[in-house]
Amino acid sequence: MASCSPCNTVSEASGSGIDAAGTLSAAACDTPMWVKRLALTNFRNYRQCSLDLDARPVVLTGNNGAGKTNLLEAVSLLAPGRGLRRAPFNELACISDGHEGDGSWAVAAALHRGNDSVNIGTGLIAAAPGERAGRIVRIDGEQQSGSGRLAEFIEVIWLTPAMDGLFTGPASERRRFLDRLIISFDKAYRTRLGHFERAMRQRNRALEQGLRDDARLRGLELLMAETGVAIAAARAEALSQLGATIAARRARVPDSPFPWADMILDGRLELQITQRPAVDVEDEFLTALKNGREHDRAAGRCLAGPHRTDLILHHGPKSMPAKLCSTGEQKALLVGLVLSQAELVKHRCDAMAPILLLDEIAAHLDEHRRAALFDEILSLGSQAWMTGTDAMAFQSLGTNAQVFTVDEGHVTSCL
User: Fold this and answer.
1) Starting from the edge strand earliest in sequence, which strands make up the sheet with 46-52, in order?
2) Which pLDDT band holds residue 21 (cuts at 50, 70, 90)?
């Protein structure tokens, strides 16, 4: 049975704005946000796990398959959405020695936020025979109607090996990257995305069934036009702000080992919204949807809208498409993007740096880039959770990090 042994809170710290109590100084982070306690029950390969933490970065080392990424996934589920793996919730329950439990699991945390603390948690309850299990969310013991309220308390940004294909993979991955950024400071954005996607699915289904009722189709298209243009406007604004943050970082650290990215939104609505009033763009999109019904019917999908937008990225210093760069260049470019994203979120969210989840982050970075990354994290004031198989890769952090060893679901503190 996999478990988690009790881990002592590491209180010794020095340098980089962290005092002996493990609290980030005002110079490092004006109002810090960090997980003080993480508790898992029947989650992945953990039957029970309890980690007591301070504000410093968290380093998890151990062999592949030991359960390091599972801990990062648990933290990611404390934010709205499906977590960094986007796994179905019914697949997260612990299975021990080949025997399944009742399918329930829970992740809970005591979160330090500014000058306050809040208890947040999520999980899946066991369903009665014939019933469907549903995810639950609790904040300070009170059950919520959905995971959306979690966005009011915690900001989480992650970088995983699966994201290494961001530049070469499908456009949907790049849209998701940008959409997660927007959700960090626009809590209603997720709702607009959901409304657009539901209306589009209903329209697709109606067209597939041969429906030609103009009134019903127009009602769906009105919702698509309104929410679609709002989505495009939010993306254009977010990309502008991210670009400004990248430019500021470039001026501040011109010789950074993490190159700056040049970004362009390749989408008709996003282009139009920067040139014309939103109401005019809505009217034109609505007309395009009506005129395109037969083409969409034949294609079996909607051929126009924000769901087809792509984010085109270039390696700025080389003026080269990111998809043509080497693996090492792409990794460095991606790290730079995530650091810029974190800096923008901190600026937009009352100077609270988001929690960073960096899975296997040291695997493709040389010693110089690792040191630069650690300096950036400490300067940002983020409780970054980092995993790796080689503990020596994190040695330069010294007492500026709290280090744990993970071994088949057992977690021990390295004092």
Assistant:
1) 46-52, 33-43, 105-113, 116-124, 135-139, 142-143
2) very low
Q: Specify the CATH number for the domain of residue 97.
A: 3.40.50.300
pLDDT at site 161: 94
* Residue 102: both structure tokens together: 């009742």
Q: Is the pTM of this model over 0.85?
A: yes
Question: Which of 348, 369, 395 delimits the end of a domain?
Answer: 348
pLDDT in tens, 99-151: 567 889 999 999 999 888 999 999 998 776 666 778 899 999 999 988 888 98
Q: What is the mean pLDDT of the chain?
A: 89
CA distances from 205 to 217, 222, 292 (A): 11, 16, 15
Quick one: residue 294, left, alpha or beta (phi over 0 = left, psi -120 to 50 = alpha)?
A: alpha
Contact criterion met (CB below 8 Å) for 29 and 378: no
**CA–CA separation, 40 vs 48, rounded Å?**
6
Cβ-Cβ contacts under 8 Å for 184 (sequence gap 6 or more): 151, 155, 157, 345, 348, 349, 354
Walk across the sheet containing 156-159 and list its strands. 156-159, 355-358, 385-388, 58-61, 402-407, 410-413
Confidence bin at 29 (pLDDT 50/70/90):
very low
Q: Which of these three, 299, 324, 348, is where a domain ends?
A: 348
CA distance 331 to 165: 9
198 and 262 both lie in a single domain: yes
Per the structure block, which two tokens stand in for 224? 């698509």
Q: Looking at the structure, tell me whether residues 128 and 204 fall in a common domain.
A: no
